[in-house]
UniProtKB/TrEMBL annotation:
Gene3D superfamilies: Aldolase class I. One of its GO terms (molecular function) is 4 iron, 4 sulfur cluster binding. Keywords: 4Fe-4S, Iron, Iron-sulfur, Metal-binding, S-adenosyl-L-methionine. This is Radical SAM protein. InterPro entries: 4Fe4S-binding_SPASM_dom, Aldolase_TIM, Elp3/MiaA/NifB-like_rSAM, MoaA_NifB_PqqE_Fe-S-bd_CS, rSAM, rSAM_sf, Sulphatase_maturase_rSAM. It comes from Anaerosalibacter massiliensis. SMART domains: Elp3. The keyword S-adenosyl-L-methionine applies. The lineage of its organism: Bacteria, Bacillati, Bacillota, Tissierellia, Tissierellales.
Amino acid sequence: MFESDGYLYYYDTGTGKVINVDYDINKIIKRLFTYEDNVDSFIKYMKDEGISNEKLREFIEFVYEEDLLKGVDINNLYTVEYLQYVKNQVNNNCGQLILELTGRCNLRCKYCIYNDSYENMRNFNCNDMTTDVIRKAIDYVKEHSKDEVDITFYGGEPLLRFEEMKYAIEYAKETIRDKVISYGFTTNLTLLNEKIAKYLASVGNMHILCSIDGPEDVHDRCRVFKNGEGTHKQVMKNFDILVNAFKNAKNSTVKVNSVLTPPFTFEKMNYINNYFNKFKNKIKDFSVEITYPVDGSLPEEFYDETLQVSNVIDRWNKDSFYKKYDICINEEMVWKDLFRIHNRLITQQASNWVPFNACCIPGARRIYVDTEGYIYPCERIGKAPILGHVDYGIKLDELLKNYIIDYSKKSIDSCKNCWAVKMCPICYVNRMTEKEISGRAHLNCELYRQAIKSDLSFYHSMLNKKPERLKKINEISYY
């Protein structure tokens, strides 16, 4: 049950339907989900609450007609058909290749997950990817993709290996002639220059995400060189170089990624947003994505400040979106939340079909190749079972065991009793160890359920009061 603008709604897990209910029906449904006594006691409760037999009869008829209140009855998160589908997708539909060009970085951002103090990821290292690994990885994706493929460069700081990045781009253009190729990477910008920017702009289908946390005082608090000096002046100088080079770049974009550190307040969000709004005059279709630091990555110096309270980013995003401020921060993230609700599976009859949480198909949607040539599901997953190596490809049997069958076994008890299972936003990230799914993988499920409930409420508020704002949702896709 959830509320939106004074209206009560019931989300039905089995069908995916959302039903507008009055307060009497709300009482009936709540009683059905909580009472443990007999039918006579239930009927007595209805009478005590002033709910007539006629009202109860109408409700029962409606439930039967719409096939509601059945939930789901599942033993696995997969079927035999899904296992075969996974095999086909891995073999034939790899959509993105992420190349870890280097484990080195010229900065030491205080919240970086690759710092020695953060245990869930590898540390910075001196490993560099060879051109031999680059060739083999590109050859692999050529043979296991369809008509389009994204090649993304990762680090450390990928521009430390600009010549190898350039080599990969030229080799891909020469080798994968029958597919549309897009390129991209995230950069701290400190190593960019006019020569590099000019080349990148000439490639076409190039998408660059720049790490900028906001105004100088915000940015320089965490994004620092190895000697502790702030990087903002250098970053903004090079950002202008990049933007000028990309003014006429074909099918290319320059966007910003920002990390919000304490204090987590609306005032700080407004301060950062006002700063980035000035960028709109520089870049066409400019956007910013702002996120929190990864749990456990903040240094101790932040512990005395205001920590995350009631998800300030989400609340600020939705408040700004609803009021249609002149915003740029995180509007895309609001659309993604709305998209999940708008495009949820809705069936006339209750169905036991559930998605595999929000987990992509490892080895299909993307592959992440580290400097040594080992293949992982993605760059964000941290420590996890390997999928294979560029020398021999992906080992399908091990993939199915580690990421599908065993994952399902250790998740099913949590998932089968979850009302939000068909809209689950959780993937493998931070849920795996080097060998298997973590025993702590489902500890935060209630937080995600509350987030989905909030998204349901927000979506229906927009639907009731500002339906014209939702027209765009039928024109976008995030899958």
